[in-house]
Amino acid sequence: MTQQAPTLQAIKYERGSLQVLDQLRLPFETVYKDVPNSQQGHHVIQTMKVRGAPAIAIVAALSLAVDLHSSFSASPASFPDATSVSTFITTKLTYLKTSRPTAVNLFEAAGRLSSIVAAAATSSPPATAESVVNAYLSAAEAMLDRDIEDNKNIGRHGAEFILRHNPHGGDMVQVLTHCNTGSLATAGWGTALGIIRDLHTHNKLSHAFCTETRPYNQGSRLTAYELVYEQIPATLVCDSMASALLKTKKISAIIVGADRVARNGDTANKIGTYQLAITAKFHGVPFVVAAPSTSIDLQILTGDDIPIEERNGVEVVQNRGRLMGSAGGDGREGGDVPMGTVHVAAPGIGVWNPAFDVTPAHLISAVVTERGVCVKKAGQNVFDLKSFLA
Length: 390
Ligand SMILES: CSC[C@H]1O[C@H](OP(=O)(O)O)[C@H](O)[C@@H]1O
Known about the structure:
With about 400 residues, the chain is an alpha/beta fold. The protein contains 11 helices and 16 strands. Catalyzes the interconversion of methylthioribose-1-phosphate (MTR-1-P) into methylthioribulose-1-phosphate (MTRu-1-P).
């Protein structure tokens, strides 16, 4: 077994304090940004200083935890009873849910935390403001360890599946992944990248390929950073190289994350995922979606109903990186764009910038969760995730 290097930490939390690694500044600068309240939580999520479906939910919940802890500590009189606390929490959760629309984890967490708070506020013996505050803090804080535990299980289940379904045989695999699904998208270890970590830890990974993942470059800036940091054998490819890679290299599987999986298995994930699934099908390569069960939205029957975030076109026409020969970055401190942003497109051109696309279930080989691997029944083109999660 390969010695596990410490994985990067996107989120630093202790009661009363939250910091997030500013991912707009990676891989060139490691800067942690304080998140003292829900408004800043909304900001760091919306500007993608922190991103990744699980991380979005966790940072939203913990930004409210810090907000609630400091507000209650500073002025207990502002919270005369349990109802005043639950109203504060519900209002802030409603606001945090407006930060980004596609990743269902944020909405699942908000719903679950609201239920916990409502139960605490109506419990007997009669609830107090403090008892409801503590109920929220405990539930929000538990998300950190739970996410890491889920990701370790996803890694184990996914690695077993990929080794068992390697189209090239043998006990070592080469895989391709898209976007960033590692410690920078979660509380730690990661989902699709967690599978890669598990394979590497057990000496079953001969090589990992990652796409740059235009336009935000989660692959070249974040996944490549994680892989290099942990000395996992890896190669960066342009998004446009994926089909040529599958044609010329013995790729055992394509592994991706998910922002929202519909009940039938249709999956919304980073833009570019759909075309990877198409080329995987063409080349007979297993296409594996890795996500915690909190990314599965049983309320949505098919991918047609998944809201797809469209982001500002500036993210397409401006490239991110370090200006060569510069002191590093564009000189703006704490801006909402990555360091060294340069304009790379003809001024005046129109831009379409959907942040996600939907991969239909019939192109997906398996949905790997912390509970195990869901596959389609023989002859079926869709998954039955409701039964799988029952
Ligand atoms: C485990 S992260 C899941 C998912 O989130 C990423 O999107 P974004 O970077 O815009 O937050 C990407 O789609 C990942 O696959």
